[in-house]
Design brief:
The chain has 281 residues and is mainly alpha-helical. It has 3 domains: 17-182, no CATH class; 198-243, no CATH class; 249-281, no CATH class. 63% of the residues lie in helices and 4% in strands. It is built from 12 helices and 4 strands, in the order αααααααααααββββα. The chain has helices spanning 17-32, 38-57, 66-82, 88-103, 105-113, 121-146, 153-161, 167-180, 183-197, 201-215, 231-243, 275-280; strands at 253-254, 259-261, 264-266, 271-272. Strands 1-4 form a two-stranded antiparallel sheet. A hairpin with a 2-residue loop joins strand 2 (259-261) and strand 3. Helix 3 (66-82) packs antiparallel against helix 9 and helix 9 packs across helix 11 (231-243).
Amino acid sequence: MLSVRLYTGIIDHHYDDEFRRQRKLSLSILKEFGFGKEIMEERIQAEVSVLLQQILDVKSLAFCPDNVVMSRVLNVIVSILFGRHMEDKALDELSSVTHEFMYSLTDLFICDMFPVLRFLPKMRRGLATSVAAHDRLLHIVRSNIETSDEDSFVRYYMNREGRKLDREQLEYITRDFVIAGSETVTSTLLWALLLLAGRDGQCIQERLWKEIDSQVPRDRLPSVADHAHMPFLEATIYEVMRVGTVAPLAVSHCTSRDTTVGGYFIPANTMVSYSAVIFYT
């Protein structure tokens, strides 16, 4: 399994006072960098402009959009975490490693549920891949923490914690934001592209185009302020998220009290994960 201290970061942290403190601290810093404000929209629109140009550059040739979408989404959270955008080569590496780690977790989740399977050759290879990808991801995160700008999530976090700073906690929180801020958004956008590119999506594309074109001037990108005037676009977004629901139960949960599920007793404060069951089904 991954060699990490238990309950580090946010995603897999036990729901206790320290988790609540870390969550509150992280959220307050993110708000300073525009989370939920117009400045956040500006960061996203800047990356959307780059994405549109990259699509135009292929000159209508068929191509797989995975990497370009992932890179642009990732650069939004990277600019907040480290205070700067990454160059394309470094961004591609981070994107590739993040993607590889996320998709290597299947075997890890299964072995968490059925530990005896870790002795099977296929599972051992899968676990080795997951560990290697995680180590590479942490190496990239640590390197960028070292060189992060003063005006960044990382530096604000360090200054807020002061002498209480737990360096490993910072590394895993940063890792969690890289994963959570890229993979889920990328998957949702790719679902949207897939559904709209299908046979039934052609008429929807046309309706979306007409609605957006009637409400948004050609000299700017759509904004959140426009959504009230574009009900069909909003309905389409909700439908994409309904059809392509991303990781609804992937994050571990914690029992708040003693309970029984399917005849099995689960004591209070037990971390529970549904991920392996999801992957099996």
